[in-house]
Amino acid sequence: MEGKPSPLVLKLAHGAALTPEDRALLEGVSRETHLIGPRQDLIREGARPEYVQLVLEGFACRYKVLPDGGRQIVALLLPGDLCDLHVTILGEMDHAIGTLTLCRVARLSRGMVADLVSVSPNITRALWWATLVDEAVLREWLAGMGRRPADRQLAHLFCELLLRLQAVELASADSYDFPLSQIDLADILGLTPVHVNRMLQHLRAEGLVTLHNKRLTIPDVPRLRSFAEFDPTYLHMRP
Description:
Layout: H1 7-12, H2 20-29, E1 34-36, E2 41-43, E3 51-57, E4 60-65, E5 71-77, E6 82-83, E7 96-99, E8 103-109, H3 110-119, H4 121-147, H5 150-167, E9 175-177, H6 182-189, H7 193-205, E10 210-212, E11 215-217, H8 221-228
Antiparallel strand pairs: 1-8, 2-7, 3-6, 3-8, 4-5, 4-7, 9-11, 10-11
Helix pairs in contact: 3-4, 5-7, 5-8, 6-7
């Protein structure tokens, strides 16, 4: 929709009070974009990072490939997400970043990132907030994989995605587009695709979620939150 703020602006507005000038600067860095097909690497493990990748459309991920060829997804990157703000400091990548769906991305050079943080203290604060939230999400995922039963782990992920997509105006009060496959979910949760299928069928049978035409609907959001023991504090979305 014409005039709608970019996902980057919508997300960072949760981390700091952005002025009109701040918003204009952030819109500027996301103006030049590239369309990348699904299942493509934005950068491979071992490569030297020259840019910070910004996801504007679609779902991407950070992932590791294990010696047996298995993939572990360690972060989902949604519209508005920056793929490691300070990654250009590193000599080489210790993980890969790839698309899960068709994605539109912008590439921010070291100079562009340096300019953003030097010009506006509000943007600097918002970017630090985004980095801290990324770390908090990773901690929550680790806790979930270690301690939550599989059905609650899956339900927790659905609750998290609802809030993260609402933050960039890509979800309604109770539903959002859900393009991930059961293999993707297995690689996020550390489960087998067969186990994921069972857990998904269980959540459906309990009336906790519905999935139709790649659209996930949560009929009763408080009920799903209660089932998942979901506490959104780690997303730090409060003003």
